[in-house]
Amino acid sequence: MVAAALSPDPHVRWEGRSAAELAIELALPTVEIWSRIGSTNDRARALLAAGEPAFTAVLAETQTAGRGRSNRRWYSPAGTGLWVSFVLRPLSLEHRPLLPLLIGIGLARAIERTVGATGTDHPAVGLKWPNDVWMGAGKVAGILCEATGRGVVAGIGVNVAAAPPEVATDAQRPGAAVADCEAAPVSRFALLEGLVGELRSLTADEPTRLRGVLADEWRRRDVLRGRTVRVDGASGRVEGIDEQGHLLLATSSGLRRIAAGHVDTINGQGTVDAAGR
Ligand code: BT5
C-alpha cells in the first residue's frame, strides 16, 4: 500500500506532478520535492536516520551544495537535470559495494529506453568505474552511494537538458546531457520512472556478485577496458572488473584489484569515448 506523500512544500511540482502524485505513480512510499536544497543526499540521510522506509525519494530542481565523492562539487542547475536521492535499506553488507555499479547499469538502461536507443551492439551509454555514466565523450551522470549503520543513500545526478558549463573547467572536458542525442525534449519523469523500475529489479535479491548477464552488460558498457589509466597511486591497463566490482588493473608488478578510487588519467590524455570507441 502507498502511504500519503509528504513534502516540505506541498505546492512544489516536478514535471507537472505533486509529490503525492509522484509517490502514487511510481509506487514510492514517500517523495519530497524541493525547489532548492543543499544536497538531496543530506536530506535522504536524515530521512534514513529517522527510519523512513526503502525507496523514500528526495527530488530537487536545484542543489546549492550538490556533491560527488570526496566532497567534489556536483553542479545541479535549476530545471536541467534529474537530481534525486533514494533511501535504500540493504540487509546484506556484501551487496552494498555493488550498489553504485548496479545503479550505473540501471541508469544506463533507463537513459537508453528514454531516448529510444536500445538493442544495439554498441551501447549509447557507457559506464566508467566505479560511478560515472558516459554518453558521447562526456560524463552525463554520476552516482554517490553513502552507507550508514541503518542503510544506504543512493544519490543520482543526470544532466538531462544540458550539461552545466562549469563542468568543462572543473573536469577539463565538457559534460554531456541526455538531450545531446535526442531531437525531441527528454522527459525527466520517464527517466525517473525507468530508473525506479531498474533500481527495484536490480536490488531486489541483493546480489553480492556481479555475474552472468550483469557482468556481460558491464563489459559491453565499460569505457575503461583496455585503456591505460592511473587510479590514485597505481597505473596500468584496465582488464575489467571482478565479481565483487573491484577494478582489475594490470600493472608492471602484476594484476591489482582496486576496491575504490578515482580514475584520473586515461591514456595520459584525459579522454575517453562512451562504450570504449
Ligand atoms: C559523482 O562524483 O559523480 C557523484 C555525483 C552524484 C550527484 C548526485 S545529485 C543527487 C545527489 N545529491 C548530491 O549532493 N549528490 C548526488 P565524482 O565521481 O566525485 O565526480 C565529481 C566530478 O564530476 C566533479 O569533480 C566534476 O568534475 C564533475 N561534475 C560535476 N558536476 C557535473 C555534472 N553536472 N555533469 C557532469 N560532470 C560533473
Describe the 3D structure.
The chain has helices at 19-26, 40-49, 99-115, 166-170, 188-203, 212-221, and strands at 31-37, 57-63, 81-88, 125-128, 132-135, 138-148, 151-159, 228-231, 234-241, 247-251, 254-258, 263-266. It has 277 residues and is α+β, with helices and mostly antiparallel strands. The strands form two sheets. Strands 1-2-3-7-6-5-4 form a seven-stranded mixed β-sheet. A five-stranded antiparallel β-sheet has the order 11-10-9-8-12. Biotinyl-5-AMP (BT5) binds next to helix 2, strand 3, strand 6, strand 7 and helix 4. Biotinyl-5-AMP binds at residues 39-41, 63, 66-69, 72-76, 83-85, 131-132, 139, 142-144, 155-157, 159, 163-164, 167, 170-171, 175.
Describe the structure concisely for a colleague:
By secondary structure, this protein is of the alpha+beta class. Helices cover 24% and strands 27% of the residues.
